[in-house]
Amino acid sequence: MQRLNASEAGFADAFDALVNGRREADADVSSVVTQTIRDVRARGDVTLAEMTQRFDGFDLNAAGWQIDAAQCKAAYEALAPDLRDALTLAAKRIEAYHKAQLPENRDYRDADNVRLGARWSAVDAAGVYVPGGRAAYPSSVLMNAIPAKVAGVERIVMVTPTPGGETNQAVMAAAYLAGVDEIWRVGGAQAIAALAYGTERIRAVDVITGPGNAWVAEAKRQLYGVVGIDMVAGPSEILVVADAKNDPEWIAADLLSQAEHDPTSQSILFTDDAGFADAVAKAVDAQIASLATGAVARQSWDDFGAIVLVDDLEGAMPLVNRLAGEHLELAVDDDRAERLFDLVRHAGSVFLGRMTPEAIGDYVAGPNHVLPTGRRARFASGLSVLDFMKRTSFIALDKAAINAIGPAAATLADAEGLPAHAASVRKRL
Ligand SMILES: NC(=O)c1ccc[n+]([C@@H]2O[C@H](COP(=O)([O-])OP(=O)(O)OC[C@H]3O[C@@H](n4cnc5c(N)ncnc54)[C@H](O)[C@@H]3O)[C@@H](O)[C@H]2O)c1
Ligand SMILES: N[C@H](CO)Cc1c[nH]c[nH+]1
Ligand SMILES: [Zn+2]
């Protein structure tokens, strides 16, 4: 973990390095992914089986390529009651939040009696990536598949790695709860390529959503345009802005909640109190020692973690905006959290006040936990129902309407040197 002090000489350069440090697609990841995409296009299922053997350690042809609906239903029914209740609560809250995102069609006539509007429709097929390399993510099943369902997608195809051939009961139960139509036991960049281009077994989809590690995120980025994507959601990140009135143990746990996802996750604390910074650093070290995920969290914290000491928390906000983090906690009194929130320009999701740990958003709050990473909150938003929909505009004119606006169109066509355009309008005037 690096310690930075905003009032020391050299801070600007050190902070620039923190902002510009690449944790995700370095040249290696990028070229490996390009080659993987080529291989999947050329050899389809053969490549998927080979890569699954190499990375997930099992034989797809022997273990089976798919998890079927009956297995998912059985997993749901066999789930421990508290886990089933938790999944159900999460699903209900996620569904309610995302239903409110459904857009409205428009259809109206303007002052020239031109009929204008736009009609929303769902994509035909969506591929949802559910990570599964280091941890199993039933919550990500819900966060992807429920918005797709709410949007009205007819075919929801889930891909997820099953390391060692082990299927995860909670993931299957969540797929049943969310109404996933197909599940393929493949992961990584190869699964994204399979969804984008199709293989002998897997039919291509129109949109791919979901989070994943650096290879998965880079594959989505490279395949955008062949398919639609939600955004690039790679290794998790958290920025915490906290004053000394917090319990350092709570803030340490918040930082570690994202560090434990991936060795390239990033957790950064901004505080205005050097003593509090020391206490959090100490608590992080102590807590890592007792985490089952401690090795991953240690690597993330050591390599990418930071504590930034600032003069005042309001002054930290321009720095926070430059980092444009996936998650931002404002762990201060509620009224101050509102004031700091007003200064936020770039963040995937914001957690207000001392009683709102980021982990609540990961599971049960309702807004989507698939969020832009790698500073992409500057231009991207979290997954929503709209990622599974597209808008078709429409125009209808009658004689009066074309006489009103047609001459201007013909004049513009003349100016562009496109006489067939001009004629197609003038013939109707
Ligand atoms: N941003 C978000 O919204 C969000 C949400 C949840 C999880 N996440 C992130 O998702 C990620 C989950 O990662 P994971 O690894 O546990 O699961 P994963 O499913 O994303 O990746 C596992 C797959 O990665 C591939 N892979 C692993 N090492 C490779 C290598 N050296 N070369 C090529 N391919 C390789 C393999 O195919 C493997 O099956 C974490 O980074 C986590 O932070 C992000
Ligand atoms: N924090 C992750 C998004 O970066 C989402 C998640 C799922 N489960 C636990 N956490
Ligand atoms: Zn998380």
UniProtKB/TrEMBL annotation:
Organism: Sphingorhabdus rigui
Pfam family, one: Histidinol_dh
Keyword Membrane: no
Role, per record: Catalyzes the sequential NAD-dependent oxidations of L-histidinol to L-histidinaldehyde and then to L-histidine.
NCBIfam families on file: hisD
UniProt xrefs under Gene3D superfamilies: 1.20.5.1300, Nitrogenase molybdenum iron protein domain (3.40.50.1980)
HAMAP family from the UniProt entry: HisD
Membership in a protein family: Belongs to the histidinol dehydrogenase family.
Active-site residues per Swiss-Prot or TrEMBL entry: E326, H327
Cofactor dependence: Zn(2+)
Sample GO molecular function, one term: NAD binding
EC number: 1.1.1.23
Chain sites annotated for binding NAD(+): Y129, Q190, N213
PROSITE patterns noted in UniProt: HISOL_DEHYDROGENASE
Any single GO CC term annotated in Swiss-Prot or TrEMBL for this entry: cytosol
Protein name in UniProt: Histidinol dehydrogenase
UniProt-annotated binding residues for Zn(2+): Q258, H261, D362, H421
